[in-house]
Amino acid sequence: DEMKRMDRQLKNFLYENMYRHYRVVRMSTKAQRVLKHLWEEYMARPEQLPRSTQALIDRLGKPRAITDYLAGMTDRYATQEWDRLFNPWESA
C-alpha cells in the first residue's frame, strides 16, 4: 500500500503543479477559444475553407468536414488562421 500512497502523491503533485497550473489552464482556455471561434466562423462562412475541405462538405456534412479540418491543425497553424480571420492588422 506504500506504492498506492506514493502513486497518489505523485498524481496530486502533477495535478497541482502541471495539469492545473495557471499557465497550463490559461493556454488550454485560449486554445479552446481559438477553436471555438474558427468553428463558428467556418460554419457560418464555409467558403473560407480550403477547396479540398469544401469538397468534403457534401460527403461528410459541414460539421464533420470542419471538425476534421480543425483536428488536423497544429497549434501554430490554428493561431495563424485565427489571426488571418479575426486580426484586422493581419493579412488574409
Low-confidence stretches: none
Helix content: over 70%
Please report which band the strand proportion falls in: under 5%, 5-15%, 15-25%, 25-35%, 35-45% or over 45%.
under 5%
Instruction: Tell me the distance between the termini.
Output: 59 Å
Order of helices and strands: HHHHH
The tally of helices reads: 5
Taking all Cα atoms into account, the compactness measure Rg is 19 Å
Question: Globular, elongated, flat, extended or rod-shaped: what is the shape?
Answer: elongated
Q: How many β-strand runs?
A: 0
User: Structural class given helices, strands, pairing?
Assistant: mainly alpha
> What's the overall average pLDDT, rounded?
95
- Return the domain count: 1
Largest sheet: none
Secondary structure layout:
Elements: H1 2-19, H2 22-44, H3 51-60, H4 62-71, H5 75-86
Helix pairs in contact: 2-4, 2-5, 3-4
Overview of the molecule:
By secondary structure, this protein is mainly alpha-helical. Helix content is 79%, strand content 0%. It has five helices and no strands. The protein has helices spanning 2-19, 22-44, 51-60, 62-71, 75-86. The relative contact order is 0.10.
In short, what is this structure?
Helix content is 79%, strand content 0%. The protein has 92 residues and is an all-alpha fold.
Features:
92 residues; mainly alpha; 5 helices; 0% strand
